[in-house]
Amino acid sequence: MPGGLLRGAGYEVHIEVPDPPDDWIARVLNGTYIPDPPIQYLLGLVQPGTTLLDVGAHLGTLTLPAAALGAQVTAVEAATTNLALLRRSIERNGLADHITVLPVAAWDHPTTISFAENGPWGSAFAPDRPVTVEARPLDEFVERAEYVKIDVEGAESEALSGMRRLLDQPRPPHVVLEVNRFVLAGRSEPLNLTRTMLADAGYSLHLIGPGWLLPADPDDWQPETVADYVASRGEPRLPAGWALRSPRLLDECAVIMAAEARHSNAAIEHHVAEIMEQAPEELRGHPLLRDLAEPAAPPLQPQVRARSRRLWKKANAS
Question: What pTM was estimated for this model as a whole?
């Protein structure tokens, strides 16, 4: 079975991947893998005895290193292929005493749901969902956790609704979750729903970047198609070397939006048009937005170019 080593400060674990590797994470794990910022953030906070709930564990890119650092991890994963590989990795690394695996989808009530197994993109909302899996509220299984990570391809609101007791404990957890415009649009869910749910529960929000956290509000405009946030009661904990940063400048937002517009995934380009429509007024006249509308710009979806041109003209109308 192919796999790779995950190495970091204080840990080295082997991780099993499908044969052949069938998604970009698995392919990278079969070579060299650098954890993305939300995983780096959580691993920077883990200590021996830390309790961690990993909702959407996939192959264990957070679960395994956290357990190797001494955390007690509950890994929630609904996809059978991912579960089999995760369990092999747990056994191979001798981490069974540190990891409890829950083979369910995180949901807001006990039921069974139709599910599409698709590597890290397993979804309860994909058009074709040939598998039936058990779905349960996580409050049934988990009494406490210091940290929660939720990445479940658009089902974050159901997962949060199923852990209300956990979120309202005397020492509530830090919650790291993904906000993915692409998958949320597929189920017509507002982009700010999960952020609003957490704010209504008394949590403050911070956007997660490489080595930094940025204060955020539920209704903030999000230039990225996919972004990760940490929610906490009070000030968030910071790993060593991390910092709270100041708000992003207009130029920085424009660079992010321009990069998203040139994404190789045409489906993501589709959502960039929506991002442009929602952009702050002062950003719509930015030169980078104008450049997207120019004929010499890299190939773009027609609607992206058309909206760029329309917004540029509107922003610069006399």
Answer: 0.88
